[in-house]
Please model this.
Amino acid sequence: MDTLKGKVAIVTGAGMGLGKAYAVGMAKEGASVVVNDIVQEAAEKTVDEIKAMGGTAIPCIGGVGSKEVAEKLVSTAASKFGKLDILLNNAGMTRDASVYKMDEKLWDEVIYVHLRGTFINTQAAMRYMVDNKIRGRIINISSPAGIYGNPGQANYSAAKGGIIALTKANSKEFARFGICVNCVAPGAKTSMTEAIPEKFRALLYAKFASESVVQRMGEPEDVVPTIIFLASDASYYITGQVIVAMGSTGVI
Model:
């Protein structure tokens, strides 16, 4: 499997869940991967798994949203692997509360990680790609919540909706450089869904299963083929798109 052979990718929030699946999936397809996470042990476990299967990866620790971390991610890719072809903006978190009860800190934290994090990493990667004439790929991770909204997640829904708008704006700005910018809104089990109280999690999974073409809640690996395609040279004619990868209509 060499769809991404010779490519170099950065995957943020790759220590667990969907991010880990994306990083491992890219490595399986031949990419050298810079594995980012805020938790060092988690990032190193992903790197160890990639190396154990014969892949190439290196950890780069830090929280997204920081200009210093964004620049470190790009410089790590360039210094360790010689270039940067792919940026996957995946890192995220939730701070759920009703709007009535949500304080500004809960709002700001989620917007900072998701929306500022996507912007600041994209800016660093885009500058490198343009300066080095690389016709790269930038893949942003949104959510069905960013399209349809989720009660109790106004901050998360707004951030993920903002990522969709950012994707569309950037795709128009970056097209003249041959850089494709797309967005995936996955519906699958993650560390975030696992944190939902068991009763409500069971209802959510049952709802997904009843409407899904695969008759079950998606696993992280179900989303990986979409990511691989958008990261590959085969996606050269696709930009500014939002793909809902959840095996159903997407209306939760």
User: Anything to note?
Assistant: The chain has one domain: 8-245.
